[in-house]
Structures are given as structure tokens and as C-alpha cells.
Amino acid sequence: MTVQEYNERKAQSYKLLLWFAMISMVMMFAGLTSAYVVSTSRKDWLKEFDMPIAFVWSTILIIISSVTIHLALSFIKKNDKAKTGLLLWVTLLLGIGFVFTQFLGFGQIIENGYFFTGSESNVTTSFLYIIVIMHLAHLFGGLIALLIVIYNHYKQKYNSTQTLGIELAAMFWHFLDFLWILLFLFFYFYE
Questions:
Q1: In CATH, which superfamily holds the domain spanning 56-189?
Q2: What pLDDT is stored for residue 5 in this prediction?
Q3: Which pTM was predicted?
């Protein structure tokens, strides 16, 4: 087996493992959203609950970050390391902005008199809180992966022939983006 064949098999293995992880995450969120749907028949369910505007902004930020990580991958394939580095940093900052706006959204929900836990909470906002926090936990994993990719980028580990780390990070980041869009649309339109 040549070095190139070994590297190709290794890349396929890593991508397959990432696919298994993402599929398991989809199953977890499918279970949570199913429980949400079943719970809407409860008497204490909020019938008129508006999503905070900060969640709209966070959705815009994560969509833009998906574009920037895609561009970073495109530029490393062209061996343009300067643009790759810049776009990786922009993706990281947009990811941090996403987290920030998510917490702003939580604040807006609380300002409207809805609480997530405690005696003043209700099941609607508790579900929203749990699902968003679970997504944020996975996003923190994505931010850590981005930091590792940025570190490895500056250690000169990526070039036009070695893009595996950035590819894996981009796959996971696009997955998180797609997952959030689905969750956002679910919360926005499902009553």
C-alpha cells in the first residue's frame, strides 16, 4: 500500500466516523422535536409564543459562516493560505457571534416574561431551552474543531493536496448550520 492509498483510506475512515456522529445527532434532535410535538397537546402549552429576533440574527450569522468555511476550503485547495487563514478566522468569529446572539435570544425570552426553569417556567420555553442548549453544545465542539484547524493551518499542515482537517471541519460546520436552520424553522412555524 502506498502512502497516498493509506491517506485516502484514512480520510474515508474519518469521514465515515463523522457521518455516524452526525446521524446520531440527527436522531437525538428528532427525538427532542418529537417530544416537543407530543407536548403541544398539554394544557399548559403556550399557544402564542414568538421567537426572539436575536434567533433570526443568529441564523443569518451561521449561514454566512457556512459560506466562509466553504470558501476557506476552496482557497486551501488552490494553495492560497492567506485567504484560507482569514476565512477560518472569520468563520470562528461568526460562530462566536452565533453563540452570543443565541444568549441574546434567551434574554429576550426572559424579558417577555417567559422562564426556562423554576416555578415560573413553562413547558414550551423549557423545550426550547433544552433543544437550543443541545445545539450550542455541539456548536462548541465545532468551535473547538475550528480552533484546532486554525492552529494546524498556521503549523503548515494543510495545502492543496492535504485538506482533510479543513474538510472534516467544514462538513461538521455545514451540518450544524443545516441543523440549526431546520430547528429554527421548526420552532418558527410549528404551533
A1: Cytochrome c oxidase, subunit III, four-helix bundle (1.20.120.80)
A2: 83
A3: 0.90
